[in-house]
Amino acid sequence: MRLNYMKVQPGSLQTLLQLEGYVKKSGLDLKLWELIKIRASQINGCAYCLDMHTKDARAMGETEQRLYLLNAWREAPFYTEAERAALALTEAVTKISEAGVPQELYEQVRKHFDEGEFVNLIMAINAINCWNRMAISTGMVPGEYQPAASK
């Protein structure tokens, strides 16, 4: 670890936790949220977050098969249409400088999520992207995390 941002600037952690708290209270399906966290973390290459969120997803009952194939979700038949829309949005927002969020994708997502849910998805995607960037920038090391249920 390069530095412990939580000790150096405790307010930074509190800010991230507030964003996380907003998403938790939003009503977004928690299993879907874990898929979003994992997919964004795959794109960003955040080993710490991948370790954490795959463990959390397993603890919530997510299958190994769906976790192993998440980076190839377009080709795998194990995801619902709503999950596919959310995963496509996750990729677009995570890589927003490449193509933005095209109108076609917005319409695809809106078939499954109302306006408020769309905003909550964006907040969830932004939250994990922020966590990824903090973890990668500060050199957080994966491996020690255990889900709350197994601590």
TrEMBL record:
<feature type="domain" description="Carboxymuconolactone decarboxylase-like">
    <location>
        <begin position="12"/>
        <end position="91"/>
    </location>
</feature>
<dbReference type="Pfam" id="PF02627">
    <property type="entry name" value="CMD"/>
</dbReference>
<dbReference type="InterPro" id="IPR029032">
    <property type="entry name" value="AhpD-like"/>
</dbReference>
<protein>
    <submittedName>
        <fullName>Carboxymuconolactone decarboxylase family protein</fullName>
    </submittedName>
</protein>
<dbReference type="InterPro" id="IPR003779">
    <property type="entry name" value="CMD-like"/>
</dbReference>
<dbReference type="InterPro" id="IPR004675">
    <property type="entry name" value="AhpD_core"/>
</dbReference>
